[in-house]
What we know:
By secondary structure, the protein is mainly alpha-helical. It contains 21 helices and no strands. It is globular.
Amino acid sequence: DDASRVAVSRASEEGARLVIASSRATAARFCAGKCLSFAIPALDAAAAEDLVARAMPSLPKALVSHVVSEANGRPGKLRAIVRLLAGKAIVAREDIDLALASSSGSVPPAPSTRPDDALLLAERALDMGRIADAEAALTSIEPSTKSETRVRTAVARARMALGIGDSREAKTQLEAVAKEAAGTAHERSWLLTMARTHLRHGDYAEASQFATRVASGGDDALTADALAVHGIALAWTGRESEAEATLAHALETALRAKDRRVEAVVRGAVAIVHQRAGKNVEAREAYEASLAAAEEARDATTVALTRLNLAGLARAEGDLALALAHLEAAVDMGRRAGSMLAVQGALLHLANLDLYLGRYARARASAPGRRTTASSA
Length: 377
């Protein structure tokens, strides 16, 4: 800053010896007299990528390479970028580029929003699995006299509650606007969220009833999402063949709708059914396809939950190293997204795996109840 420049220039004029960590060109602008340069080489790509992967275990390999490229392999710049990305859900290259642009002033800060704008921001954040961002947007919304706003707000708050694992709060929010939602343009969203609430609560018959009401209303992404709920509910009640048929229909619908977020959800449901049936090869293929779709849709919570499910599959097959990598990534992404559901599940599995490996201190540290800083759809 200007004060630093004045101090450096004054010290240089008085003959003081200074050490400036910067490029030679920058140092030359500050100092008078002779300037000695001690070049520090950039980190090699493998070392730099290892550092980034350790700091951000949820970052896909392609994005690790992108961060290293942005830093030109320089340790200081690499550290600055990792600090800049701390606490942010990084799923796609756009997330990194947006954060870097915002820090440089290339992207102006968002202006204050009206309640309807804040609600729209919350809904978009939920669609991208960013529970913490949705919570921040929803806290600015005051009680509304408009029925439509009340319904949308209740649905958003219910989705947020599901993301942190509180199905009772989700149900309370939805029941409060049940009459207002009936017959409106937002009824199907309300029904779908209620279906997911019952599914999370273990009320599979009720989940199927709400989901089939949504599915009967069209041939769109909402239908595909509802069919995924119905398929999982069928599987959980032992009706595997019906579940597979329902999920096949859901996937066809999601592909027609060209909605990658919902496609990720459906493929994840397909994987769960395959895994329950002992079809591990098919389950892994479906989970990996779900992960790819979720990353393209920038859905952070689905990424975290899919990594959690992949960890369970890896452990069942005896690949403990891969299971640990998936679990650490799920914890990291879950915290960044604000998805307590993913974080708690991953920490519990980490603790169990550490106990199995005899790493008792790590197991004690991984116990969900001991992690207070963590906060799916």
